[in-house]
């Protein structure tokens, strides 16, 4: 799920402004309910403060962005949420994967996520909770992160040719830096995931937790998405980690087969 390349004629009136506005919207979306600071929007976009401020002002006027009066952070506005309702079936992979994710969550007892690639980002489009008393809800549905940040992004990148994944990580350098990550560290994790077929973070986003992700590969080998399990660290270690990964791989393969069947019928 990749947006069209930005190769259209830049001479078209307003093309640059539209692209910059869309870039700012994507960055604001990364903040979800927490919001994003102006200084971070500057750093991640590479635009100067007057330009970012001018774009934000217009987006606020259109209801696409709003600013929290207390924190001064910027968040996605109601207009974007309302526009999204026009395409509620935009993620056919989620419809296909939903029963498999529910089954996996029931089997392992922990929280299961489904993420997809969108350009240089990974986006969480689905989440199922298990039956264990402590569920690690590390991210919300709709979270957008630069590819490479988090195990799902690493798993997605590991399916791509080395040159392509490297170019994506380099393009995300500024955004990764804001999150305290270095491009070379991300590339090392991608190489490891490519070698072993999984992306594992013994120390997850939340203290005392862990996460592991397995890619969902199309017949071509390209990533359709990634299945992630998050849990308390002791539940994703040793022999249990191997058991969880085996079940994740089984469900990921089942999702890929079902996706291929549905795609074939639609041709």
UniProtKB/TrEMBL annotation:
SUPFAM superfamilies: GAF domain-like (SSF55781), Winged helix' DNA-binding domain (SSF46785). This is IclR family transcriptional regulator. GO terms for biological process: negative regulation of DNA-templated transcription. Residues 79-261 form the IclR-ED domain. Keywords: DNA-binding, Transcription, Transcription regulation. The keyword Transcription applies. GO terms for molecular function: DNA binding; DNA-binding transcription factor activity. InterPro entries: GAF-like_dom_sf (IPR029016), HTH_MetabolicPath_Reg (IPR050707), Tscrpt_reg_IclR_C (IPR014757), Tscrpt_reg_IclR_N (IPR005471), WH-like_DNA-bd_sf (IPR036388), WH_DNA-bd_sf (IPR036390). It comes from Achromobacter deleyi. Residues 15-78 form the HTH iclR-type domain. Transmembrane segments: none annotated.
């Amino acid at each position: 799920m990749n947006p069209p390349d930005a190769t259209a004629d830049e001479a078209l009136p307003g093309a640059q402004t539209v692209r910059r506005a869309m870039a700012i919207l994507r960055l604001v979306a990364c903040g979800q309910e927490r919001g994003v600071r102006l200084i971070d929007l500057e750093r991640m976009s590479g635009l100067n403060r007057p330009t970012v401020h001018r774009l934000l002002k217009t987006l606020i006027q259109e209801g696409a962005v709003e600013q929290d009066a207390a924190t001064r952070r910027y968040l996605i506005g109601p207009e974007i949420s309302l526009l999204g309702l026009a395409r509620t079936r935009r993620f056919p992979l989620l419809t296909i994967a939903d029963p498999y994710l529910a089954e996996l969550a029931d089997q392992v007892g922990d929280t299961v996520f489904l993420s997809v690639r969108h350009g240089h980002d990974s986006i969480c489009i689905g989440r199922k909770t298990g039956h264990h008393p402590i569920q690690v809800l590390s991210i919300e549905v709709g979270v957008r992160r630069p590819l490479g940040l988090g195990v799902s992004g690493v798993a997605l990148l590991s399916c791509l040719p080395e040159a392509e994944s490297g170019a994506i990580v380099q393009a995300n350098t500024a955004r990764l830096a804001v999150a305290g990550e270095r491009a070379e560290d991300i590339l090392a994790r991608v190489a490891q995931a490519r070698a072993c077929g999984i992306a594992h973070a013994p120390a997850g986003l939340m203290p005392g937790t862990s996460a592991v992700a397995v890619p969902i590969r199309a017949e071509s080998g390209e990533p359709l998405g990634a299945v992630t399990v998050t849990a308390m660290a002791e539940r994703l270690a040793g022999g249990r980690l191997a058991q969880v990964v085996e079940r994740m791989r089984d469900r990921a393969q089942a999702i890929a087969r079902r996706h291929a069947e549905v795609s074939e019928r639609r041709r």
